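The protein record minuted underneath.
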Amino acid sequence: MSIIKQNFQTNIKSKYGAKIAIAVSRYNQKITSALLESCKTELVKRGVLSKNIEIFNVPGAFELIFTCKKLSGQKKYDAVIALGAVIRGETPHFDFIAFAVTHGIMEINLENKIPVIFGLLTTNNLKQAKERIKGGKRGDKGVEAALTALEIINLKI
């Protein structure tokens, strides 16, 4: 049984006409492009129309905060998904960026009525990041983000 099946309802379907914005970092693009592709594929598989998925490319993970805040404030989307990859390097930059993005996305979720889904990989190395994309032994964070968005959209609260 895969990690995704253990943690998520697998019968989730899109609400008719659901609109999803995906903000994706170009930094660590080999990883983030794989996250984006699997996220979009899963959303379409679950019934979201391709024309209802809008992609917003940003330079790095830090820029996800501003972009997601603007997108969620438009009230045009049912959910916003933030996708990125922060991989530890030789300096403390990793710690600052990972904390800032995590905290920023949390703050947006507390302020707005539109859910912002946290699809940021924070790994110690490239190998760990590759294990968390399509075909990786730790699941696929892109699929996980798509399922999370649909599950939250479908909550009856």
